[in-house]
Design a protein that fits this description.
By secondary structure, the chain is mainly α. Helix content is 52%, strand content 0%.
Length: 42
């Protein structure tokens, strides 16, 4: 019953993980700090 079941699911997991990591590398970094303006009245 379980012949190849775990192997197939592990391969699918590795493919999804690789795709996710590839997308993560291409995303811009959003955690950069915003700079305050010199004049804080604005």
């Amino acid at each position: 019953m379980a012949d190849g079941f775990l192997e197939k699911h592990h391969e699918e997991y590795e493919k999804r993980k690789a795709d996710w990591l590839r997308k993560q590398r291409h995303l811009p970094k959003t955690h950069q700090r915003l700079e305050r303006p010199d004049d804080e009245a604005l």
